[in-house]
Amino acid sequence: xxxxxxxxxxxxxRTGVGEFVHELVKALSAQADRDAxxxxxxxxxxxxxxxxxxxxxxxxxxxxxxxxxPVRILAWAWNRLQWPPIELIxxxxxxxxxxxxxxxxxxxxxxxxxxxxxxxxxxxxxxxAEIRRDYPALARSHAARAHGVIVxxxxxxxxxxxxxxxxxxRVHVCPPGRPDWADEVRVRREQSPRRxxxxxxxxxxxxxxxxxxxxxxxxxxxxxxxxxxxxxxxxRTPASERWEARCGEAPLKGHVTITGYVDxxxxxxxxxxxxxxxxxxxxxxxxxxxxxxxxxxxPVIVSSRGALPEVAGAAASxxxxxxxxxxxxxxxxxxxxxxxxxxxxxxxxxxxxWTACAAAARRAYQSAIEVRRRGSRSGAAxx
Length: 383
Fold this sequence. Notes:
Layout: E1 2-6, H1 16-36, E2 39-45, H2 54-58, E3 63-67, H3 71-81, H4 87-90, E4 95-97, E5 110-114, H5 119-122, H6 129-145, E6 148-151, H7 154-163, E7 171-173, H8 182-191, E8 197-201, H9 210-223, E9 230-233, H10 241-247, E10 256-260, H11 264-272, E11 274-279, H12 288-296, E12 300-302, H13 308-312, H14 324-336, H15 341-349, H16 354-374
Parallel strand pairs: 1-2, 1-4, 2-3, 4-5, 5-6, 6-7, 8-9, 8-11, 9-10, 11-12
């Protein structure tokens, strides 16, 4: 099977989607090298950004199709015109896997789209210009024309089948795996048990519900002036301006750090020193920081919305995202004592692997090829 995976989200800063596609490709190539015999290739496009030189050494059997084409021009042509077909850029493949809800046009390959969540439908005004322009208008029709849809959780599968009216048989759950650097972080935590901060990891968008986290942390500090500082690690957004202003005022002033985007090295340092990870999101299609934290032995506190209860399992007791008192009590309890939360997280994280993710993706590719062969599409779910 000749597999082409859209690598563009990982070309620059590898946030959640970028991390997903990078690790998926690495696992697919390892599986192909070991026993599947597949040909795995990636596609990138940018006028100025090129794949990292180390990428070839990290995945030596993966062929890299690097097009020096401006991202915005290609995205507009693909999204609006469904042209040019990928074959003109990267040659023939059996399946092409888009990392967005919108198809990569192809003359002959089975087409897969990825839908991690539906926030682009519910809060389009908070998205980037391209997503605001194209995703709400086109996602339903593109998903209906796709030969398969990949999601990262059972929660996301339910959302996609219900709201986009996609046949559940065409929706494939491919959960991400635990990071390969987690064991090193766990060793660091065992060697240096002193914790330095409470951690939030993720883009500072409205759906992350950072306002409730700040309110909860302020209540913790009111009862415990010696509480560890809070670190908000992730991209700033227009929505985060209000939270940044609040962090400059009492009682949070001097106790909250906003880092902006963190690279892999900085991320592992933050997990190594974290007393806990708190993710109070209103919506998550998966919640990769929760899996990362659990893999490192960092206790997690999560909201009861989206896929977070599914991902955390028995490692956390989910809290309503508007319950600042509930988050404050949970944070204070973990500051006093772990109560085995870190060990429960390690056990839960052991259920996730990139090998399993790649195997699930490969099954999705085979299914999509069969759907294309039969000449049927995902279409609407039957009533």
